[in-house]
Amino acid sequence: MKWERVELGEVCDFQGGSQPPKKEWVATPQNGYIRMLQIRDFTQGKEDHIAFVRDSDRLKKCNNDDILIGRYGASIGKILKGLSGAYNVAMIKTIPNEKELNKDFLYYYLVSPFFQSFINGVGTRAAQAGFNKGDISQAQIPLPPLPEQRRLAARLDKADALRQKSRAVVETYAELGRSVFLEVFGDDKLVQFKKTKLSEVADVVSGVAKGKKYKETDLIEIPYMRVANVQDGYLDLEEIKNLKVPQKEIDRYLLEKGDVLLTEGGDPDKLGRGHVWNQEVSPCIHQNHIYRVRLNQTKLLPIFFSAYVGSKYGKKYFLRAAKQTTGIATINLTQLRNFPTILPPLPLQTRFAAMVANIEAQRRLAERQLEAAEAVFGGVLQGTFEG
Questions:
Q1: Taking the CA atoms of the chain, what radius of gyration do you get in angstroms?
Q2: d(CA 300, CA 303)
Q3: Phi, psi of 307 (to 5 degrees)
Q4: N or C: which end of the chain has fewer CB within 10 A?
Q5: How far, in Å, are 93, 106, 224, 286 from residue 156 at the CA level?
Q6: pLDDT in tens, 308-340
Q7: Percent of the chain at pLDDT above 90?
Q8: What sign does the CA torsion over 158, 160, 164, 170 have?
Q9: Sheet hosting strand 274-276, strand order edge to edge
Q10: How far is CA 87 from the centre of its chain?
């Protein structure tokens, strides 16, 4: 059945945020302080960015059931629900007329592709990406009777619960993979192993410089790994870009199965970020902000080394050795080559690798189940707001 569509501004009001000076923010909760919601809350899983401000009437506030929408930049149209506190000017709060618009129905409309397409189109028209109350008020929302809105929202709740459950399973396997390292190579065990410089057991190189000018005119286009592709414990291959380089550059920087890719730097908590390359794309090279570590696998297995670098032991070294400026930390090639690397017996590394491989197989199965749950949710969402 086709429902009447109305402009969102007819059944919903909007309230911009407030921006207390950063000098008034504190990192830990105190009496009389409330959480200050920021644009980073739309995307960050970790909570190391949380801040608090003194409660006052000048702040714009939200409750757990209020819905916030990102207004600027990469956060345009992102939806946040379930947090309370004050919220900043990069967010806008929705205030539905609940005699006409159910809050849960509104939430699912806002995350639907219909609204997202609209708001991203509006937000990118201006030189400074963003939108105002007038822009968002013009979005067209279907408006069935309230009982039908509640029924549809309840159906979407069930589909959403399925995908959230599937996502939690995937995250559990990711955590399990990290805990296996501690189980096999805990604090009391690491000290007993021989230690050497990484350069003694691996070939460590930087990659090709992006934007480099070549005298050669006969260049070959080839996929390459960027910093965005190399994450902490996995590779993000959703977008792979190409470079044009001479054949000799390809020969020099060509990735091989078992190479460990590590980023040069970024936020301090991302030092030592990397993962094992399993020839997901072939052929492929890497750029100069990514280091390629090619191990002597008679002494050191890639899956063990990658886990060791990403553990607190590896991160401690990189934080101590890194050059830090304005919140950005980087390590150079010499520092990486000098990385103190432990050498557990190969049978122990092999046992660890087998455990990780089993967990990875289960995680991939869970990811496929998550994809199916996402497809179900997307189908229900599409059907709801087409009607």
A1: 25
A2: 9
A3: -65, -40
A4: N
A5: 22, 12, 40, 43
A6: 888 888 888 888 877 766 567 778 889 889 999
A7: 47
A8: positive
A9: 202-205, 290-295, 260-263, 274-276
A10: 22
Please enumerate in sequence order all residues whose Cβ is within 8 A of that of 378, keeping only pairs 6 or more positions apart, or say none.
none
pTM for the predicted model, two decimal places:
0.71
What does residue 158 show for φ and ψ, rounded to 5 degrees? -65, -45
CA distance 225 to 382: 35
Residue in the structure block whose two tokens are 């197989």: 361
HEC-encoded secondary structure of the chain: CCCCEEEHHHCEEEEECCCCCHHHCECCCCCCEEEEECHHHHCCCCCCCCEEEECCCCCCEECCCCEEEECEHHHCCCEEECCCEEECCCEEEEEECCCCCCHHHHHHHHHCHHHHHHHHHHHCCCCCCECCHHHHHCCEEECCCHHHHHHHHHHHHHHHHHHHHHHHHHHHHHHHHHHHHHHHCCHHHHCCCEEEEHHHCEEEECCECCCCCCCCCCCEEEEEECHHHECCCCECCCCCEEEEECHHHHHHHCCCCCCEEEECEECHHHCCCEEECCCCCCCCEEECCEEEEEECCCCCCHHHHHHHHHCHHHHHHHHHHCEEECCEEECCHHHHHCCEEEECCHHHHHHHHHHHHHHHHHHHHHHHHHHHHHHHHHHHHHHHHHC
Give CA–CA dist 199/310, Å, rounded: 18
Q: Which residues contact 169 (CB under 8 A, 6 or more apart)?
A: 366, 369, 370
pLDDT tens track for 11-24: 999 999 998 988 88
Structure tokens at 382: 């599409």
- Which of 255, 194, 245 lies closest to 220, judged by CA? 245
